[in-house]
Amino acid sequence: MWRKFREWFELTKSEERGILVLLFFIVSLWAVNFYLKYHIQRRPPSEFEVIITNKSSELQEKYNNKNSYSEYHFIGYFNPNEVSFEDLLKSGLREKNAKAIINYRNKGGKFLKAEEVYKIFNIDSGWVTFHLPYMVINQKSTENPKTKYKLFVFDPNTADSASLLRLGFKPWQISNLLRYRSRGGVFHTKEDVKRLYGIDSAFYTLLEPYIDLPAYGDGKQSITSAKATVKIELNTADSTALTALPSIGNVLAGRIVKYRTALGGYVHVNQLLEVYGIDSLKWELLLPLIEINVAHVKKININSAEEDELAAHPYIRKGLAREIVAFRKNFRLFQSVTEVEKLSLAKNRDLGKLYPYLTIGEN
């Protein structure tokens, strides 16, 4: 039995030499791989490899953020048939999409339903989805542009929606005005009506002779109220101090502080519109009562910050953070914060908002 077993595994001299040669090749390949992996300086990636890496990072970030609407900004109710190019940009719509909507309207096109905005060529569907609930189409004015409105004397502090509609106010303008009043706002001067979001200068010129404002001495906050002599500094105020502002409760004050921490501080009052729960009406109400000291802003050193620290910033996120670190490791340190614009994932971002938060450290 044992003899037969040995016969099965008995090797000739040539077979033994073949096995030894095979083992030699296996060990040699392992040794070469080990040497290349740990002892050879990694060569800089080729231009083609950089393009492929950047593209894959871009696609990955789009996948990770496909349901994120953080880039869009609430601007109140608006009619896509009348909203201005500037307001479209403020809402987060890309410039080419905003131009496409304006060109469509200039050529005689009209949106009969809000959903028809989806039909604009190459429109950002995420932007439409975000703003669709706030798009208001005045069907009567769209179908009959010759509709005439009756002008009469009115008090914007007491006029009801039916009266405002007869005066020529659009539905979203009425909604903005009524919401402002419901939050304690009072029109003390005629100019206060002009400052209400959605009231353009041409419409105000038409209304101005008919605005009748009795003297209001109830102490309620106006858009231009001069009673708030001490402004609140956004970068140092705690949530308790913020609740002293009109229309700001504990929850909203907490969100303002939380977003300030994520940013590293506010550099412009417009950033309040990025806080969930602050719309254009609240923002206009707060403007005379707040100020910003940019000396309190914390900056990120893009030449030393780790990927996680970069990714935590609302204006950077994971994809761009990964590219910043890769640029540093594979090429060189950044010599200027504006070099970030060379990265592929930075091309479609508003870098003007990001630069105040970046530094390259000491040279």
TrEMBL record:
Tagged with keyword Membrane: yes
Gene3D superfamilies in the cross-refs: Photosystem II 12 kDa extrinsic protein (1.10.150.320)
Record's GO cellular component terms: type II protein secretion system complex
UniProt keyword Transmembrane helix, yes or no: yes
Stored InterPro entries: Endo/Exo/Phosphatase_dom_1 (IPR051675), RuvA_2-like (IPR010994)
Keywords recorded for this protein, A-Z: Membrane, Transmembrane, Transmembrane helix
Superkingdom of source: Bacteria
Residues passing through the membrane, by range: 18-36
A Gene Ontology biological process term: protein secretion by the type II secretion system
Protein name: Competence protein ComEA
